[in-house]
Amino acid sequence: MTIKLYGAAMSTCTARVLACLHETGAEFELVPVNLLNGEHKQPAFLAKNPFGQIPALEDGDLTLFESRSMSTYVAEKFKGSGGDLLRAQNLKEAALVKTWMEVESQQFSPAISPIFYQFYIVPMQGGSPNQAIIDENSEKLGKVLDVYEKKLGSTKYLAGDFYSLADLHHLSYIYYLMKTPSAKLINERPHVKAWWEDISSRPAFEKVASGLILGEK
Amino acid sequence: MAVIKVHGHLLSTATQRVFACLYEKEVEFQFVPVNTEAGEHKSENYLSFNPFGQVPAFEEGDFKLFESRAINLYIAHEYTDKGNQLLLSGSNKSMAVLELWKEVEAHQFDPASSKLVWELFYKPLFGKTTDTAVVEENETKLAKVLDVYETRLAQSKYLACDYFTLADLHHLPTIQCLLGSPAKKLFDSRPHVSAWVADITARPAWSKVLAMQKK
Q: What interface predicted TM-score (ipTM) does this complex get?
């Protein structure tokens, strides 16, 4: 049975799951959700995600929402064929992967999301980016990336010397950040920059990147 | 087995989240207070436990972790045969449903409720003035989240399944703070949510966490 992913290829959170699907080689079908028409707030979609957000995932009788739970499910289901993104064979490595997944979720995401929102979503709604919000969150993101800079000076990837779901969860948001003036937050930190160049050049991500067309005319 | 140490602060919701898990699993630990008032959490020594300079941090022998939800997941797995079962095992699908509701706590419930805890609980404690606009905005957001919970808890006794798991546990510290504030009405006005709140806050393990603050 093929996994169905409901979302939009250009959406950061949908891309988070796409990256994992490609990395594990799982078979799936992307079912577009028409955000402009408000499809994500209609009863049919709310039955899949009661919070009315993309993405959602169906695998047989299992329906999931929240992109990170979806990628975790895919990584667990398809481990072996696509490598071991969660380091399931070693509980301590697995715990370190989960720690840095929490870091992405609790430290990185709250700082980068408002910057992404100002540069990409606000203009789509006819407004102008709010520089004060960008500046405030850039400062927060800078502090988080200082911690990453130090960690990536001692390990090749976030959880250790192995690529994991902790690294993968950052891909789509950083990809979009790199097209804005805030790219300097990455470029000014040599270990972070090298890590970004490494993880974004993985073949599985290049397939996802081609769909990340927000902001392009 | 190596000694478990939890570095943190009794008033920190994130630290309490880890205590709750350790008590549920009946795992012994030492509490190492971190003097956040004096800035100890930003000291060189503490940053070696948590590079983000936040509480809690966790040690088991020479194994170190931070981020309360990651710590809890490790404890729940490592001590799976002790105390209460906090995980949904069996199939990948069951595990995914648990992950999903843990994500909901982290990304839907926590952002709004944390802001309310800050405004309604911590600020008065530190002698600062509550911002009523922020309270109103976040009560509205939290209400929408709790509407989803109300529907879910009408179909399922606990969030992920019919027994208490990490998905429920992770809410405890924040909910406890809000029960002592005007935001309590958001729980009281939703019968299934209200019953769930009453149930999870009455668990013996949670009472032990609350007892730590009374010493």
A: 0.71
